[in-house]
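Batch job 17 of 40 flagged for manual review because the log was empty.
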Amino acid sequence: MCTICGCEQGNQYIEGDEHNPHSAFRSAPFSPAPRQSLQIKAVHKTSLLTSAFLGGKLDYGQGEAGTHAPGLSQRKMLEIEINVLDKNNRLAQRNRSQFLTNKQLALNLVSSPGSGKTTLLTETLKQLQNHIPCAVIEGDQQTTNDAKRIRATGTPAIQVNTGKGCHLDAQMIFDAMQRLPLAVGLDQLLPKNVEFIHGPGCPVCVLPMARIDSCLEIANQPQVIFCTFGDAMRVPGKNGSLLAARTGGADIRIIYSPMDALKLAQQNPTKKVVLFGLGFETTMPTTAVIIKQAEAANIDNFYFFCQHITVIPVLKNLLQQPDNSIDAFLAPGHVSMIIGIHAYNFIATQYQRPLVVAGFEPIDLLQGVLMLIEQKIAGDSRVENQYRRVVPDTGNSKAQAIMQQVFCIKGASEWRGLGMIKHSGVYLNAKYQQFDAEQHFCISPVEDYDDPQSYCGKVLTGRCKPAQCPHFGRQCNPQNALGALMVSSEGACSAWYQYRSQEYQI
């Protein structure tokens, strides 16, 4: 509890997380990195006495802490306050360093509710348009109304909701800053002849309708607990979504780690617990560890539905399409941390396209773009690593080894909007077939299909922008999505809806 005004933490999230129950920011206090605890060297004993001993006046605001909380001594409250403030100061210094590095001026506008802060901001931003590039982090306990008013001026803005709290602390600012590459509109800051294509960078965005229907077939069986990450809940299949199935009575649980599913299997020995494994090489090692743990513990009621996919085959597929207009690639740092940078060499050698592995902060993305442009100007085609502080050139050998022990890559796999991609299917090795949910539940063959109304494939391959889809923001929106790109907060259509929709008539 805040000792200044009595507010509490709870239901804090950054704009966009309302559509992503798996987000680490959803309904959880922000957690900075661990730090060394502080020690109070000395406290005057007289300051710890209650007000009854200080002149007979019943004043609970007396003492070093200057306030009162039931069950806490003045010393304990003072220690808590010092720790909290010190933590915030350290995080604030990190923010200031980042602002300084990016040559950004950060202004904090504080006033009482209803005093006209947002009106002042909107009018000021209108005057600054075409003179100084600006962006806004808005804080409020509920709603995104203020951020929408800011964006109506043409200024990028992102909303932070503090829930029961009333303060924006340094960690919230830092977390919001990481979302600003989309909100700030890096694509709009660069020259007009530099165009970004939002590729299939999110596994939910390419999750086929047929696979959702297979999940539904399993989840609706008796004695089944179906475990999935939250961002897959609202992806539509031909026969509905996992969210609709849960509303209809299926036992579908949102998990935050594969370990949660394994624990559920141990706690419910009479149930069949199914883990929906979803993701690129980034999440495959964690899944592999859980499957090996299930084998070692002889857990016989744990099953795995595999929807892991690999990045390299889809890149080859994009480059082999005769009408592709891709000149260069910014490769994802998290996948590259596992597979390394040499896996991309064929892009430079066979297709003469430069590629840079980049991080996710604005400065990383801008440097990555600069490195690509320098290669194009020089007529080079090389694979470079901008994200060396995280990505080793050879990747993570331990992660690669455990993936090879548990999984094999064979056959084709359907990618929503892109069709069947050769050599991208991921399956369990023979040693772990007893965990294969599709074999155990004898899943009916499902014909591959996609919603004919969806423009997802055209968006993923750069053939159109999200707002050029006739359903964008109308029949298709985050609350009622036709395609997976509008479901995931990382999807191209969802991002455009949040940060670009004010530019279009919807």
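Reviewer: the log was empty due to a logging misconfiguration, but the result itself is present. Residues 74-101 form the longest helix (28 residues). Unflagging and moving on to job 18.
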